[in-house]
Structure formats: C-alpha cells, structure tokens
Design a protein that fits this description.
This protein is mostly beta strands. About 5% of the residues lie in helices and about 45% in strands. The protein has 3 helices and 43 strands. The N terminus and C terminus are likely disordered.
Length: about 475
Amino acid sequence: MSYACLVLVPAGFADDTNAAAQDYIIKVFGADDGLTEGSVTDVAQTPEGYLWIGTLFGSVLRFDGTRFVSYDSASTPEFSLKWGVPRFMPGNDGTLWICMYDGGMTAWDQHGFHPVLTSTNQPDRLLWSTPGAATFVYLDGRLLAGKKTNEQWSWQTVSLPAPAASGQHCADAGGRIWYLQASNQIGIWSEQETVTLPLAPGFKDQAIKVLTADKLGRIWIGTDKMLAIWQTNHFEIMTPTNGEAELNVKRIVFSGGDNLWVEANGKMRRCVGRQWCAESSDWNIELGRRQSLRFLHGDAEGGLWTSAGDLGLIHIATDGGLRQLTTRDGLPSNTIRFACEDHEGNIWTGYERGGLVQVRRRLFRSIGRNEGLSDSLVNTVSGDTNGVVWIGTHSGEVGRYENGVCTNLVLPGRARAQDSSAAVAPDGRVWIGAQGAGLVVYEGGRMRTIATQAQLQGGQPQAVYPRLLVP
C-alpha cells in the first residue's frame, strides 16, 4: 500500500546549508489576531510569561499567547505622564520598567502598575534592580538611582567623576556600578563612594576596550591584548589557550550556558572556559567591518541575534553559521530595530505599520521535488546515525537525503521495481524491499541483492525489519 504524503524530517537530520526559511517559521500578528495597533516599537517578557508590546501611539499591550489586553493613559491612571512611545527595561527581579520617550516611568510587577517617575528626562538603560531599588544610566553617563520607601520612590541623579566618553556602564551582582574613566582606569560607584580601581601591573600598559557584566553580575574586560574576568580583588586572564597569545578585543557577548562570543583580531569566535569552540567566518565577512549594529545579544542555545542596516534579522548559530531572514522569508521589512527572545526560545520583533512578528525554530523540514525527491508517494522513512534519511517510494526508487539534497537510487534487477521500503539496521546497513527487486542491502556505497523476487516465491517484503534480519 502507498500513501500520498509530505515527508517531514526533524531539523537535526538536515545540514545547516539549507535556506533560512527551512530553519525558521515566521508569523506576523495583525488585526485579525487581535492586535489593534499595527505599529510595534518594543517587546519584552516578564517571568510569569506575559509578552508586553509597546506601540507607536503610546499603548502597552499584554499578550498571553491567545489574546491582547491594551493599557493606555485613559484606562491606566498609574501612567504618570501623557503617553509617548514606550520602551521596556526588564529587571532581574521580575519588574518591568516602562519608560516614555516624552517622559515619565511606570513599573509593573505581580501587584500591578505603579507610577515611579515624572521627569521628562528619560534614562537610556537599566543597569541593576532589586525589590525597592534600581539604577539607570542616561546617555550622557549620569546615573539615576532610586529607592522605594513606604510605597514611594525617591530618586537622585549622580554625576560620576572623570568618565570616559563611552563609559560602558555595567553593574555587578551587588549593585555596584562599574564604568570606564578617561584615564583608562575603572571607576566603581556605590551609594557610599566612588573609587578608582588600581589595575595590576600586567594591565597598566594595556588599553581597556570593553567593560561589561554577564547575567550573573560578573565583570569582564577586554583590552588590546587580553580577555579577563574580575575575581574578588583582581582580574584573572581568560584569553583562550588554543589560539593567539594576544587579543585585541572589540566585542564581548554572553549567550546561553557558559558560551562567550568574543570579536577580536578580526574574528568572531565562541569560547567556553579558555577554549575557542567555533568561529563565524560569515560574521567576519558580512558584519565584522560594520561599526554600528542595531542590537546584538546572545540566545539561550549559545548563538547570537543581530541586525544592521537593511540586512534583515541575522542569527549566528553555535557553530558560527549565519542565517539571514528577510522579506523573502516573510518579514514585513528588512529594517529590524530590536529583537526579544522569550522563555521558549522564540524571537519577537515588530515594525511601524508592520505588526508583531514571531520567529520560531522549525522542528520539521519538508523533502519534496525541490530537494530532488522523485516521487511524492512515500512508503517508509528511516534515518541513519550520520543524518542521512532513506525514503521508500511508490515508484520503487529509494531516496537518499543528505545535506539538503535527495539522490534517487534505482534498485538492481531486470524488472522495474515498485513500492520500495527501506530501513537502517543498527550496524549501518540499509535493508530495502521492493516489488520486482526482492530484498536488497545497501552497504559501503553499493547495492547487493540478498533474495530475488523468485527466491521469495513471488512475494515481496511489505515492510523491512532489520533488527530481525541482521544477526
């Protein structure tokens, strides 16, 4: 019996050279899905799973995966000033800080919305937060530090001493703010004081290029010679040992697990501990020369997401391979200004007049005539340990799918084979049965007939069970 079907193969069987559309599914949410405002300016997720969407006309939408709930200045008195375009700053403590371009800031937590600030000077980034305290940084390098007492927030603006033009402010696990000073030194601010960190003699002749903190609040630096992490009272060298002795660091990006991406010496590489694990040659060619990226952040699997210019949405996989999603794949536009990863690994973005977009990993890939499969009537599918998929078809040919391409094998015998079935044995041999061909084994790149149609007394194997046939 034959079956008319579309063959679906788990993504792990296919090679990464396939088109990006084979790797991801893009869904655009619009009015038909309940998204009442089509211009999306920001997306964030809070720990309980809600997705929050900011819109061009000032509303905040909450999405639970099924329906959108809208909040605006008319329905939500906790929004302290007239609505502008909202930006979201999620805190590690689960608080969502909602900032407006025309001023004002509102916080959301499990108890609801709370007005926290009415100033028209909006901070640029959230550096650190804990229940009852938060620290932001302005574009000019000043800090905005707040404390909550009796449900009321009080704020102070802090001008740090001797900041560099690009202070690269970040926070450690204790809430201390680290920043670069103009003298190529590091300043550390706390509520009590600001101190200048004395660097060890081995670092004094080096230029600090990157200062950043990982998700655990550990402080990292990249200089023109090395990579290092702060350990209690000193910087410990973390330059990988299986590469160059010196690194001129340009970027440091943290992704899932212990994965660290470092752009240095003209290369973008992933390391774990002190070992290089992968290099993105595509990054070196396409993105390494670009000084300005719209965003760049790691994902939970250890890869990177980014965008630049009108290149669309770009993913760097853990092996360094580059995937580029554009309007050809279903995006409303190739200009991507932000991206947010949710708890399930889906990527969300949005556009002005383009709606809300979800990008999720495709679990299955189709194999059909575009990949070279000769027959759409399929009897059996079996995969071997090398990722090759074997397909028995109504026409009798056996499809061998590898690296995105299907090769069709003709079975031996005088009679034209029909209705083939194929199965891979534990030892790697492929057993094939078909009308007109009998029983055939594929091994070492060659086919060998085990039993002819006549030897099978005119019958044919309707199904092949290699575990029973192979000793």
